[in-house]
Amino acid sequence: MTLKEQAAGGCLSGSFGRASDRKRLDGSVAEQAPGSSSRHGLAQRRRRSTVRRVAFVIAATFAAPAAASLDPPAWTRPITPYHLVGPIWYVGTEGLAAYLIKTRDGAILLDATMAENVPAVQRSIRAVGVPLDRVKLLLVSHAHFDHAAGDAAMVRATGAKVVAGAGDVAALESGIPPGETSYGVIRFPAVKVARAVRDGDHVTLGGVTLRAIATPGHTPGCTSWTTRVVEHGRALKVIFPCSVSVAGNRLIGNRRYPGIVADLRASIARLAREPADVVLPFHPEQADVRARAAGQRLVAPTLLSALMRDAAQEFERELAQQAKKAR
Ligand code: ZN
User: Fold this and answer.
1) Model pTM greater than 0.85?
2) 119 CB contacts (<8 Å, ≥6 apart)?
3) Hey, which of 6, 61, 132, 215 would disulfide with 10, CB 3.0 to 4.6 Å?
4) Ligand 1 centroid to 113 CA: how many Å?
5) Residues 41-54: tens digit of each pLDDT
């Protein structure tokens, strides 16, 4: 997601500027910033922020630190890393997830989050016992700044190879997010993709295998990842679902992504059918990851389908609204 997305509620929000319609799955921004202004006030602030940010981008002088001050505070708030299940650890910030999978041949990192978070994420990686040069693979959820702007710096520090959905490779390698949105363009540092994956491709390191599930829509290359782990002798299927929110994406007349409506609808339906014991989204509050981990409630086999039911409702509501406006 991007300046835009986040102004729009980011990867989180399905309905740009309509805080009252925001559902849990997409509307974590308000929930990420307890004690902040009301949702209505937040939406107004986002709209103003969007205008400022778009103007900034147009001026071609976009600077991440300045933009970051407008982001939800939780996105850049460092937290102590914690164990999830099997070899999987949470090494992100409070509001943006980075997941680390330890293997005998090094570690796999899923998302580096924002550029300004990279030092905190690196501290967390080291804190859970992994030297930076042992991070061998960086798997990308999708090409939006809140998830991928830190990739370039993380690669420089670790030497990790970037693996991403084929549909997002051009965006990652140019630093220009894909598609057309209501909020403009938020650039991020470009990063070289070592391997482009498609639906069903496998990525293996040190005996750990992840399968890519192509879930396009939020971005063309939005990729969900699944793996199997063993926790206390119990085999568990873990999924890292990519965002499926509209989040400011133009659904009607999107010339850069004409198939966006069919893709989003299909990806939500696909994820709803996907069996998963543990759901680890990249906006962690969507699945209450931290609270579930603390309460040993991470195993929740009906959670993904429930989240997708909410996402489907939000998507159809947003589509109807955009169609009405377009008439
Ligand atoms: Zn996004």
Assistant:
1) no
2) none
3) 6
4) 11
5) 333 344 444 444 44
